[in-house]
Here is the input.
Amino acid sequence: ARLAQIAGVVNYHKAELAQLCARPEVRRYLEIAGKVRSGEMSLTPAQNAQLRQMGQVVAPDLQKIGEVSNARKAAEAEQAEGQALLARFEAQRAERAVSTRLHIGHLDGDTQVRRLPYDPDGACFYHLAPREIKLRLRLRGAEGTRLHAGAGGSYEWQDGAAGPTS
Here is the structure.
């Protein structure tokens, strides 16, 4: 949603630039100034004075063009940064979703197997205080999806396909 909003801002700035540059006096000045800068055209002193006069007439428009252009460039940079971040997150998600598997060969006693949310970039469970670990494990249904509850046998789970094994 944020990337779409930024894309809208970029498109707005592009349309505003097109509108400003489409004005006849601004377009004429930009064409002549561009040719003079590139060396395609050389001006006599009288023509140079006329170009300066044209520049003074269109100076507010040129200033607005500069401001809008800078805003567009900033929005495009933010959009590129956001797209790179989104691509990184999607790659991480795809990498993490490759394969998750759990195999418990022998259950003895009352046992529950629950799927808990896990953030690989976050703190590891074994770095938590023992009280927090016990609290997370003993909460009944408050956290995680219960996959299995039983007193014996074995259990296997892989990417959503779960079931007791013989």
In short: Residues 155 and 164 are 4 Å apart (CA to CA). The helical segments are 2-21, 24-38, 45-96, 130-138. The chain has a mean pLDDT of 84.
